[in-house]
Amino acid sequence: MHDISVGRDILEINRSLALRNREFFDEKNIFSVNIMGAVGSGKTSLIEILCRKLGDFRVGVIAGDVVSDIDTGRLMQMDIPVAGINTGKECHLDAHLIEHALQKLPLDEVDIVFIENVGNLICPVDFDLGAHRRVVVVSVSEGDDTVEKHPMIFATADAAIINKIDIAEAVEADYRKMVDDAGRINPRLNVCPVSIKKDSGVDEFVRWLKNERG
């Protein structure tokens, strides 16, 4: 019982900090997106192509990882403000880490902040960061049963990217099954099958993103 109580306290504190982050984003008129997904699903590649396609908006990024700064370095090459976070042993970002990372960004020069969460499909579910929208990215190379094996992250997301559909046949994955599974788990979910590498299907997600920003 003691362990359960401690867990609830941690989540409650995180929710309070997340609310403060959301209020801060609103005050600055910044649209924020929490991008979740497993290692290798294409989170960084998605952010890169979004930065190119969202030319009318000034983009900033918070890049989370356990120990590496490889993704942070990739994104910095795009000449956008990037704040890197190393979580150590933690398999997710939390609202407290985001609060501190925001201090490293020139927020008066940013319209959209993409938050690249740590590569994991389980741990980020319970930790609200204060972002306006939650997006989960999975690739067909993870297996076409990946969505149904991780229902909670799809149930709590606003949009899902099914990536690498151009290699679905090669890895013997049915991306349509993944799309159907995501829609069954969360009928409100905006599901976009894409190939980020081939720039196929991404424009549909960009239109959704712009509409959500308002």
Write a structural description.
- The longest helix has 27 residues.
- The chain has a seven-stranded parallel sheet with strand order 3-2-4-1-5-6-7, with helices on both faces.
- Helix 3 links the parallel strand 2 and strand 3.
- By secondary structure, the protein is of the alpha/beta class.
- It is 40% helix and 19% strand.
- The chain is built from eight helices and seven strands, in the order H-E-H-E-H-E-H-E-E-H-H-E-H-E-H.
- The protein has one domain: P-loop containing nucleotide triphosphate hydrolases (Rossmann fold, 3-Layer(aba) Sandwich).
- It is globular, with a radius of gyration of 17 Å.
CATH topology: Rossmann fold
How many individual helices? 8
CATH superfamily: P-loop containing nucleotide triphosphate hydrolases
Largest sheet, strands/sense/barrel: 7 strands, parallel
Overall shape: it is globular
Identify the CATH class.
Answer: Alpha Beta
CATH architecture designation? 3-Layer(aba) Sandwich
Number of domains: 1
Oligomer: single chain
Termini separation (Å)? 44 Å
Helical content (DSSP H or I, runs of 4+): 25-40%
Q: Strand share of the residues?
A: 15-25%
User: Kindly state the mean pLDDT as a whole number?
Assistant: 93
